[in-house]
Amino acid sequence: MGFWWYEVRLAAGVASLALVAGWLVGRPSVGLLVGALVYAGWQGMRLLRLLRWLQGGRLAEPPELPGVWGELAYLAHSQYLRARRRQRRLGERLKRYEATAAALPDAAVVLGRDHGIQWLNEAACRLLHLDARRDVGQRVDNLLRHPDFVAYLHGGDYAEPLVLSGLVEEDRVLQLHIVPYGQDQRLLVARDITRMHRLEAMRRDFVANVSHELRTPLAVMAGYLETLLEGSLDAGQRQALEAMQQQTTRMKHLVEDLLTISRLETGELEELDAPVDVPALLRSMLEQARRLSGEKQHELSLQADESLWLLGHERYLYSAFFNLVVNAVQYTPAGGRIELRWQRCDEGACFEVCDTGIGIPAQAIPRLTERFYRVDPGRSRAAGGTGLGLSIVKHVLIHHEGELQVDSTPGAGSTFRCVFPARRVCGPNDPQ
Ligand code: ADP
Prior knowledge:
It is built from 13 helices and 13 strands. By secondary structure, it is an alpha+beta fold. The chain has a five-stranded antiparallel beta sheet, sandwiched between helices. Strands 7-9-10-12-11 form a five-stranded mixed beta sheet, covered by helices on one side.
């Protein structure tokens, strides 16, 4: 508060001097007026110096000003120093972020309004063949013109990444993901997954080839076993051959399931949009389920909406639905109830298998469609399960844009639901 005292003392000093001088010449009021003018002029000069300093922009060097003007100059100077320190800190942080993003192995491209490129890192130059100097400011869809990428960019649904080969190089497979942030800004991230893609293809081919190669020896073994079992055998020999036959059948199922999965994984399925008479398919399935249930004498029932058909692949749909029915028969104790339902639902159409079987613990439900996952491995093997059934169901549903839903209570029963979108629903008389 020293500057206030300085100003008060200065004003009082000037006023007293002016009053004394005015009194000496016999005109104290004129003396006071002259004193006030001198004081105002003096303050005006200091204000002018302060203004010049502020306008000059050399805020790092404050002027030597006494009183309240000096205080103002000091405040402006310290605000300036603080802002400069903040700016330097932000600048350093920005540089660090830029250096980190630039060093990322994945391509990163910042897109503004209208998909214009605002910034890109080195990996973007390498993976997407963009040029930091030439392409900043250009629309990304003018530079990356693959129709799938353009549709993804404009579609606005960025929940899932887009996997694309041939965006810039024919044999490079990229995983592209757009992350919206801020106002109208998007980050395009691209990762090279060519190697992973190749390894995955190799794995699929290997499983498919091995399964295929195993088919012939298994068929030969099954044939000989059948012939041998027709001959005269003692009880011990028969038991051994029957056990061998049982295991061969299990292996055959395993090989068939593996082949089905690899076909579903690799192949573009032919005839994915043929109208399928699901009610008829379920009627024949019910007969098979009755035979399968055999001595267990399940109470089996079917409710099917006769007007509800589905666009899809009949053989694969049969395989998926039958897997659910076989599981219900396998995991429901004798005398239990199994209901098959085919009906309309909010999403479109829904196939439901509801049983009063052993049920599944809640923590196991998310893992059911993993290959070879079994809640109780011993029970599944004893029942002749391959551990691949629900994985097949999942893949068939993916091909039909469907979803598998599972509700279950251990000890009370389970409901497996295949839900299909309305665009796949058709009727028996719909024109094709
Ligand atoms: P599996 O050939 O072993 O039946 P799946 O993939 O068809 O293989 O099923 C995976 C596991 O899910 C089964 O091992 C079983 O533990 C459980 N499961 C499937 N369906 C049912 C059901 N209806 N009731 C109880 N558990 C079931």
